[in-house]
Design a protein that fits this description.
Aspartate Aminotransferase, domain 1, binds ligand T4K, Aspartate Aminotransferase, domain 2, about 400 residues, seven-stranded mixed beta sheet, 2 domains
């Protein structure tokens, strides 16, 4: 439905732009036949988990794709972070951005260590190495950079800093599968990098994750840890947990690896469309990826500025009503979420760049579930909303919706 007046907006009773919710993070499926063929073979083998044929095949294909020596598949990205922290014997404090998904912080806290939240560089939106350096003290054992939205996180600066100060360096690469920095795949930087293969990711295994590393010793340790520390029947060499990936997940991964080019092409096309059609709208500043590098274009991110005429939260509320389930990745910063928000340690923490970004950022639907034409309809809608910003804002206030409850 074309909107010609603010009263056509679904928030005020008009017909929603989409009849079904259009989500951020709708999974890529690949080829169902390919997937089911692989699952059938796993059933025939009667081998469903515990380092099965498909897990091994996926590990070796991923290691080759990522140009890294070891890929250790696990049950999800959070467990991958936890295992990396434990296998690297981290202690005390770990410096990380607050501008990330809560799992990055939780993995540290869950291990009994202290997350030290650091501000971001407002230009790059990832950890600011200058601020990181200021936070290092005798209790610091590691830096955890996050390649937010697949944008590489100050790799040379953090590598130098961690080496100079004798710290471990982990990258949370949950968003960065298939991305590169300096023409090298994100995978072998730092001591370890961690991927999430959750259903909402560019490459998914339903649930799943991986730790990738160049270190033989670390890889050995991680393999032990993900399987209770077993070295053979009735032989346990170390403390471990159950972090194994099962065969069905690995079948999905193999299926999607076979279809990755097509998925990437769809993401790239949507990214370009959003930039061309919505990137010209005043006050809507889309985040760009470095076209000289490999990107997965999984996150279509814009910052909503004053010129847009409505706040980010007002826009999100309008979009939700139209069945466009845009997300605020990531709002608020982790330091404003529990349990951190109630901890004395973080009570006076000031992270102004994180707060500003978290308050302005919006993530739009993309991926293979987004039908042709949908991006143009979203862009037209955004353009309509921007050009009627004052009227809509006034109507929203009268209506009692300020967009603060999403
Ligand atoms: N580090 C970083 C930087 C991360 O971003 C993440 C996860 C991790 C670590 C931890 O990795 P995992 O342990 O998750 O492997 C989602 C994902 O659940 C989470 O994996 C992801 N980051 C985060 C950025 O996004 P939510 O709470 O926003 O998810 P949810 O359930 O709202 O799903 C998003 C949308 O996707 C929904 O609107 C509906 C749609 N969806 C979802 C699923 C699962 C579908 O259409 N189909 C589906 O099957 O966290």
């Amino acid at each position: 439905m074309i909107k010609t007046s603010w009263s056509d907006l679904a928030l005020f009773g008009g017909q929603p732009l989409f009849s079904e919710p259009l989500h951020v993070g709708r999974p890529n499926i690949g080829c169902k036949d390919n997937f089911f063929r692989r699952v059938e073979a796993a059933f025939d083998r009667r081998w469903l988990t515990n380092d099965g044929v498909c897990v091994r095949e996926l590990e070796s294909r991923l290691a080759a794709f990522l140009s890294v020596r070891h890929c250790i598949l696990v049950s999800n990205g959070t467990v991958a972070l936890e295992l990396a922290i434990r296998a690297l014997r981290l202690t005390g404090e770990i410096i990380l951005p607050s501008f990330t998904f809560i799992a990055t912080a939780h993995a540290i806290q869950w291990a009994g260590l202290t997350p030290v939240f650091c501000d971001i560089d407002p230009q790059t939106c990832v950890l600011d190495p200058v601020q990181v350096e200021r936070l290092i003290n005798e209790k610091t054992s590691a830096i955890m950079g996050v390649h937010v939205w697949g944008k590489p996180c100050a790799i040379p600066e953090l590598t130098r800093l961690s080496q100079q100060r004798g710290l471990k360096l982990i990258f949370d690469a949950a968003h960065a599968f298939g991305c590169s920095w300096d023409h090298r795949m994100i995978s072998a930087f730092g001591d370890a990098e961690v991927f999430s293969f959750h259903a909402t990711k560019f490459f998914n295994t339903f649930e799943g994750g991986a730790v990738v590393t160049e270190s033989d010793a670390l890889a050995r340790e991680l393999r032990l840890m993900r399987n209770f520390g077993f070295t053979g029947h009735d032989q346990v060499a170390a403390l471990g947990i159950n972090g194994k990936m099962h065969e069905i997940s690995a079948c999905m991964g193999l299926n999607l690896l076979d279809n990755l080019d097509e998925i990437l092409e769809t993401n790239r096309r949507h990214y370009q469309q959003y930039h061309e059609l919505a990137g010209v709208i005043p006050g809507l500043n889309f985040i760009r990826y470095n076209e000289k590098e490999k990107n997965n274009y999984q996150y279509i991110i814009a910052r909503v500025g004053q010129e847009f005429g409505l706040t980010r939260d007002q826009l999100v509320e309008l979009l939700f009503a139209e069945n466009i389930v845009a997300r605020r990745y990531f709002y608020p910063g982790c330091h404003k979420l529990e349990p951190y928000a109630s901890m004395l340690r973080y009570a006076s923490l000031q992270l102004p760049h994180t707060d500003r970004l978290a308050d302005s950022v919006i993530s739009f639907p993309t991926g293979t579930a987004v039908q042709a034409g949908a991006v143009k309809r979203i862009a037209d809608f955004l353009s309509f909303v921007q050009s009627h910003g004052d009227e809509i804002s006034a109507a929203m206030q009268k209506h009692g919706s300020l967009g603060s409850n999403n």
